[in-house]
Structures are given as C-alpha cells and as structure tokens.
Amino acid sequence: VAKFINEQPDIIGGFCYINPSNKDALDVLKKGIEEQDMEGMKLWVAAYCDDPKVFPLVEKCIGYNIPILIHAFHKAVGQLDNESIGSHVTNLARRYPEAKLLMAHLGGNAYNGIKSIRSCPNVWVDISGSIFRRDDVDYTKKLIGTDRIVFGTDMPGSYFTNFGQIEDADLTSEEKQLVYSGNALKILDRKGRIL
C-alpha cells in the first residue's frame, strides 16, 4: 500500500494495520504515518478496542489527528477471541471523546452496533461487509443520521451488495454523496494532519 501511496498520493490512501500486542506497535504506527504517508490506523481484528494496551495507540492517533478503524462484528457464532462489538467501541469513544473512531460493518448487526454508539458523536460507521439486512442503512440513518455513515465494501464479493444498499436506501442525492465520499473526506481531514 505504501508503494501505491507514494506513486499516486492524490488518489490513494491507506491505513496502518496495527496489532497492539506487538511490542513495536507504536513504532509501526509512527513509521506508517510519518514515513509511508498512511492516513489512519486499523486496529487488529482480534483486539478489544477498549483494552488498556490500545490506549497508547489511540493517544498517538489523536496527536496525529487521524482516524482509527475498528473491526466490530456482533455474531452468533465464529467470534474471534477479543473481537470488538459495539459496546467496546462505545467504551473507547467515551474514554477518548477527541478520537475519531470508525466502527466497521455497522458493528456486524446494525440493530446491536448502532444502538451502542448512537450517543457517541466521535464514532462513524461504515457499511463494509454489511450484507445481511436490506434496511440496515435506513435504520442507521434513523438512529445517527447520514453525517456518520461511510461507504465501504470490505471484501470484493460485497461491492455490489453494499452499493445497492446505498442506492436502495431512503437517502437524498446529497445524503448519498455524504455517504459515498463526503463523510470519509471529513474524517480523513487530509490537509489537517499534525506531523
């Protein structure tokens, strides 16, 4: 990803994928942001985002003014050890209200994840990998508004499903523009990074 960012910095961006259990996690984040021009941090999938070992990374991200993408997926089976759900994201958001948090997959189930984070204005949600309910986007809009929804696909197999969810949702053309790109550009704040 760093190679592609270097070649096309105006159109390609990336996030550092950081495992907080690794002793060099802060160094990897620093290298990604300061040397490889990454624009955010994706937290390791099997790490509770409200675990104290994550806090130094969050504090560094706040200092850099970059968002943190958190895999959160509420499942009935197949949960990875230490996999975050919406309530973990809420805990982190309340501890660090100045952090820009992006909860992936609508929390795995909008009817659980969105309820958890609705009172946290520093949490946005993406619809990536959210292929289960046709009304997820409408429900999310009702609870948190369109200013906190970001388009995403997560896996190549869900692009058309995720695209269809936005096109079929009860959204105005202006709201669709926010979801497709406007909200992400606000979160990334590409020109306002602190290095």
Describe the model.
The protein has a single domain, classed as Alpha-Beta Barrel (TIM Barrel). Helix 2 packs parallel to helix 3 and helix 4 (86-95) runs parallel beside helix 5. It has helices at residues 2-7, 25-35, 55-64, 86-95, 110-117, 136-144, 159-168, 173-188, and strands at residues 15-18, 40-43, 68-70, 101-103, 123-126, 149-150. Helix 5 (110-117) links the parallel strand 4 and strand 5. The chain has eight helices and six strands, in the order αβαβαβαβαβαβαα. The chain has a six-stranded parallel β-sheet with strand order 1-2-3-4-5-6. Helices cover 41% and strands 10% of the residues.
Q: Unreliable stretches, pLDDT < 50, 5 or more residues?
A: none
Total count of domains: 1
CATH top level is Alpha Beta
User: What's the shape?
Assistant: globular
CATH architecture: Alpha-Beta Barrel
Percent helix among the residues?
A: 40-55%
Task: Report the sheet-strand fraction.
Answer: 5-15%
Quantity of strands, as a count: 6
Distance between the terminal alpha carbons, to the nearest Å? 20 Å
Mean pLDDT: 90
Total count of helical runs of at least 4 residues: 8
SSE string: HEHEHEHEHEHEHH
